[in-house]
Design goal:
89 residues; elongated; mainly alpha
Length: 89
Amino acid sequence: MRLDEADPKGLVRESYLIEGISAAECRSIFIDWALSLKPGVESAEALRVVLAEYAAAAPDHPMSRVLAEALTPPDPPRRRGGRAARIGS
């Protein structure tokens, strides 16, 4: 995958240029980035491309952490025990 397909609007690239950007702002930019991917573009593959391109030069940047966290699979749901499991919420 090419970088222009992985970051079509340059949102991730621009986030690395903003001095003092917070993690919350990076998460917001990440959502905009994810919504800007064209249909058929695999988000995990696009994440790997932008991480390889931008995060290597700035591993401590908040966007690097947001992108890396996005590649981490979520914890499996855990069963609720006791009364809460029987009654539901």
